[in-house]
Design brief:
Protein name: HD domain-containing protein
Order of helices and strands: EHHHHHHHEHEEHHHH
InterPro entries: HD/PDEase_dom, HD_domain, HDIG_dom
Radius of gyration: 17 Å
Oligomer: single chain
Domain HD/PDEase: 38-170
Largest sheet: 2 strands, parallel
Structural class: mainly alpha
Organism: Candidatus Scatocola faecipullorum
Strand content: under 5%
Length: 245
């Protein structure tokens, strides 16, 4: 039987703790010699995904914006290590990392955000070695997505590096970068957008546009500033689980 990730009943980090965790892993990458510009752009991506998810959640009137924001900040935590060096996909690295630091209830988002369709095929994920693919496939067979999993997948589609893109622009950029044309993936991406539009009577692309017009002249003390200057949370390994509910 499949299990549903019930984030609303889970113990998750608070917003400020999630910001500290995210900031900490970016600082960790810089400390170990990663290109600062690339890491900075990735930090903006993580923040953007969190804000998109938060604002869409708020507009649904059903989903918890704080949960959406926290999951958005943590979805790429597996990039604490360079997967081109470790050969471990960031989805699995992140899943293991969040469990290690005391937030196992948040860990599934690291894997689910990467797969719009949980019925994955090895040929669609050539960067996954046999062991990693087997783990991801086995995990996804046991889990049923809820709308938070789908929301982070959707928010991730609108952000690439420091850019905010339409889904069409993002898919076209992926083709240029990966030299692939996966029409099946395109259909799934647009179906995901349409799912939220229909279920919650939204225009998610307009929500995204409004989100970043709203933040164009944001005050210095907004979440973006906090995200970039906070020191990492102390003693993360021993961090107590805190509920944001």
């Amino acid at each position: 039987m499949s299990a549903v990730n019930n984030y609303e009943k889970a113990y998750l980090p608070s917003r400020i703790t999630a910001v500290r965790i995210a900031n900490g892993y970016l600082q960790e990458r810089i400390y170990h010699g990663s290109n600062q510009r690339i890491i900075f752009e990735h930090g903006i991506h993580v923040f953007n995904v969190a804000k998109i998810a938060e604002n869409i959640a708020r507009q649904t009137g059903k989903l918890n914006p704080d949960i959406a924001y926290v999951l958005g900040l943590l979805h790429d935590i597996g990039r604490i290590k360079d997967e081109t060096v470790t050969k471990v996909p960031h989805s699995i690295e992140g899943y293991n990392y969040l469990r290690k630091i005391g937030f196992p209830d948040a860990a599934p988002i690291c894997i689910t955000h990467n797969f719009i369709d949980p019925d994955i095929k090895a040929e669609d994920f050539p960067t996954y070695d046999e062991k990693s693919f087997a783990f991801a496939r086995g995990f996804l067979k046991k889990v049923r997505y809820n709308d938070y999993d789908r929301l982070i997948q959707l928010a991730d589609l609108f952000s690439r590096g420091k850019e905010i893109l339409s889904i069409r622009q993002r898919l076209d950029k992926n083709k240029q970068f990966y030299h692939i044309k996966n029409l099946s993936y395109e259909d799934k991406a647009f179906n995901l957008r349409d799912y939220f539009n229909r279920k919650y009577n939204l225009d998610v692309e307009q929500i995204v546009a409004d989100t970043f017009n709203m933040h164009k002249h944001a005050h210095k003390s907004d979440d973006r500033a906090v995200f970039l200057i906070l020191p990492p949370a102390p003693n993360l390994i021993n961090a107590r689980k805190r509920s944001i509910i």
